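#data-curation
PF: Archiving a pair of folding outputs for the training set. Convention for this channel: one message per protein, sequence first, structure tokens after, nothing in between. First:
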Amino acid sequence: MKYFLATRPYVVGASLIPFTIGAFLALREGHFSLILYILGGLSLVLIHLASNSANDYFDYKHGIDRPGTFGSSGSRLLINGKITLKEEKYVMITTFVLAIFFGILTVVLSTPYILIFGALGLAGGYFYTADPVNLKYHGLSVPSIFLIYGILITLGGYFLMARTISANAILFAVIIGLPVTNIVLANEIRDTQNDRVIGIKSLTLIFGDIAGSVIYLVFTIAQFVLALYALYLKDVSAWSLISLASVPLYVRIIVKLFSKSYGKISGKEIMNIDVESSNAMLVFGIGILIGLI
């Protein structure tokens, strides 16, 4: 069980929801294959879990996650000594191998071009914290997560079914990419003090906690505005308004982030803000999916 938890399965929705939105958008347009959805989804989820394990492995190895820091639900296993660095490495390798296996099956049954999406996803997930790229340590967390988990995965799901890219697919990639990106942004706002000590860069360290909270707020407003725009275009039905159920969750999160940014609470008091942001994204994304169906 600890090896499964080391992959941080609670955030798997951050990849599966964008992929499914892309696939279901293609379904609305008359393109869908259940077997490709299952195989592509399995490969994607395994890439995500492997990337989580890799991020925790390298964060711990580089001293980012260490005793006294918050880490993530997965990396706290390392911090608390419940899993060794060697065990985390084996979890990472095993999950990447399984992801590649299902990815190959997906390519064989679909089109070689889908390999581009898979390869970029693998590289982005691994080099997010791995040497020599270390995207996370150079202030590139937010843009890289938006591009990988928003744009790349949503378009990948759509392309796997429709074999093309459309303006609608790009619109929905942005709609779901914003709340997915906010998960890592919330983490950065929580971790500014610890990140400053270790000497890595983040968006919030470059521009400040308050700026980070403002960006989170802007992204949140933008995702709802764009979702309503998609409804106006009739790309989704009125059922997509179920996504508004996430508004109270986002209000709660934003209040916490601004409170932390203005020094009213500490990072420790919002230790699970990544989980909260992930849950809000999940509610929002499910609403959009229902609107597509």
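PF: Second:
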Amino acid sequence: MKKRLFGFALLILVFAIKMQGQLLSVKTNLLNWGLCAPNLSLELVTGERHSFVVSGSYMSKLYQKSLRGWMLMPEYRFWLSGRPMVRTYLGVAAFGGNYNDQSALIQKGKNQEGSYAGVAATGGYSFYLGKRWNLELTAGVGVAMTHRRVYTSGEPKPESFEPLNFSVIPVNLGVTLGYIIK
């Protein structure tokens, strides 16, 4: 699964480099860095009001001993101002990843590990900072399906996973700094 998602992101990047006259932006979510989760996003303008973003982040044990995992989120954006990467946008995103919490940060007294996938409605506002720089405020709400096993701290892991669980969650919360590559 990871190889397919990585291959898809790489394919988008290769086509983005070959296109002439298209805007490409490299971004990072500063809020994720505050959680010690390095991240990177690539946004490709695909039309007069349209863009496509692929975002990913990874949290390893090196940064946070008790919580680790990764996330990948492709997103389509429709820019209301008529110009991509300027002002307000509305978007639709899919997301997925996995996590491993060994010190009960997510749920008090319980360790858990699992994977998740879902869809979300997103929105945001992009501030112009200069010829090549912008700052975005983003947020969204989504429905996530989780496949996990939860167990009490200090006890062995159960053999089986819980039944699939659906939750409404906040998605794509961020203060994102972007550099526009023409």
